Amino acid sequence: MEKKHIAVAMGGYSSEFEISINSGGVVCNALDKNKYEVYPVHILEEGWHFVAKDGRKHPINKADFSFDNGIETIFPDAIFNTIHGTPGEDGYLQAYWKLLGIPHTSTDYYQAALSFNKRDCLSVLKNFGISTANSYYINEGGEINIEEIVKKTGLPCFVKPNRSGSSFGISKVNEMDDMMPAIEKAFTEDTEIIIETALVGTEVSVGVYNNGEEIIALPVTEIVSENEFFDYEAKYLGKSQEITPARISEEETKMVQKEAISIYRLLNMKGITRSEFIIQDGKPYFLEINTNPGLSTESIIPKQAREAGMTLTEFFDLLIQNVLK
């Protein structure tokens, strides 16, 4: 059987590029070398390159996403997309690959763009009856009325950049006086801000993927942060516990998995997504959905896949086979 050429796209143009390179490395190592020729492709602001084993960089031809491997020109059969943030999680690359006719493991461009914009995504899902926190939106240059914000969201609340990941630019606000500094911090990451009521309950994360037509939820992970919330330190510097399976009742587990599958369906997703919820008074409130979740060894999705009885090689193989069919 001839091996398929798989380009693993990693990097990106956001604060998350290093985390993405880590995810991409895990995918490259885990893919079945008997089935696939694997090519790490770094998509960075300074350039797009296939990085060979000897460290040599071969430029990507943006006209068709081909590259030289030192012997011949490679045209990838499929792309395993591990870019967090722009341009790999917000629809830009998905639209470009679609135009080139190259299958990729992430969701389609419109779904990626919609879900990357937290407030647009919440607005759509609220109309389908999905429970979410109360929220308030501000655009850069718009009027800021702190009293009005607090009337809508109450305190404590979260101030978040609308389009960024890995908890960059997020603050938890407990006092009125902390609101402006939090807004200014969020504006360093984005020109749009979302302010949400701080829900009180158990934070959980649920991976969902498709296997052909079938949509499957992975085991649920509970997130216990030592910090005020699941921020960058908690995510990547060990300041949190991620407990898989979550210490919630079987009934709550089924309910939150069902809600995650329902959101995946409503948004017309493909590939692997990870949805975050807070279970407050026995009811899941949706926070956000990631369409290119972290895949480094300490990330949530790999832990959930292992808990579901799959090796990463099997799981990643399934995601590729889905798009090669």
Report on this model:
The chain has 325 residues and is an alpha+beta fold. It has three domains: 103 residues, Rossmann fold, CATH 3.40.50.20; 109 residues, D-amino Acid Aminotransferase, Chain A, domain 1 (2-Layer Sandwich), CATH 3.30.470; 63 residues, Dna Ligase, domain 1, CATH 3.30.1490.20. 31% of the residues lie in helices and 29% in strands. It contains ten helices and 16 strands. The chain has a five-stranded mixed sheet with strand order 4-3-2-1-7, with helices on one face. β3 and β4 form a beta hairpin. α2 runs antiparallel to α3. It is globular, with a radius of gyration of 20 Å. 43% of the residues are buried. The model has no long low-confidence stretch (mean pLDDT 93).
Which descriptors would you attach to this protein?
five-stranded antiparallel beta sheet; 10 helices; globular; 3 domains; Rossmann fold; D-amino Acid Aminotransferase, Chain A, domain 1; Dna Ligase, domain 1; 325 residues; alpha+beta
Radius of gyration, Cα only, in angstroms?
20 Å
Identify the overall geometry. Answer: globular
The name of the CATH topology of the largest domain is D-amino Acid Aminotransferase, Chain A, domain 1
Order of SSEs: EHEEEEEEHHHEHEEHEEEHEHEEHH
Query: Mind telling me the CATH class of the largest domain?
Result: Alpha Beta
CATH architecture of the largest domain: 2-Layer Sandwich
Strand content: 25-35%
| Total discrete domains | 3
Number of helices: 10
Strand order across the largest sheet: 4-3-2-1-7
Instruction: Say how many strands there are.
Output: 16
Unreliable stretches: none
- Give the CA-CA distance, first to last residue: 15 Å
User: Overall pLDDT, averaged?
Assistant: 93
Class by SSE composition: alpha+beta
Main beta sheet: 5 strands, mixed
Helical percentage:
25-40%
Annotated CATH homologous superfamily of the largest domain? ATP-grasp fold, B domain
